[in-house]
Design brief:
By secondary structure, the chain is an all-alpha fold. It is 62% helix and 0% strand.
Length: 72
């Protein structure tokens, strides 16, 4: 199973924030609803302050595309 930390195009802080809310591999990220994940990440980031600016839905979609490209 492809781990998010092994995808070079994903920023380290994004991997850290995703991991903090339980998303550790590409399959998990591919299956989640973008808007739900965005809300979950924003809430976690308020407390953890991992990323300076909360991820947008566009960024999350980019991350999902990056994981799909590396999962093939």
């Amino acid at each position: 199973m492809l781990k998010l930390k092994d995808i070079p195009s994903l920023p380290d802080d994004a991997v850290d924030l995703l991991g903090a809310v339980g998303y550790l591999d590409a399959t998990d990220l591919a299956e989640v609803n973008t808007e739900s994940l965005q809300a979950e990440l924003a809430q976690a980031n308020v407390q953890l302050k991992i990323i300076d600016v909360h991820p947008t839905s566009e960024q999350i979609e980019e991350w999902k595309r990056a994981t799909a490209e590396h999962s093939v």
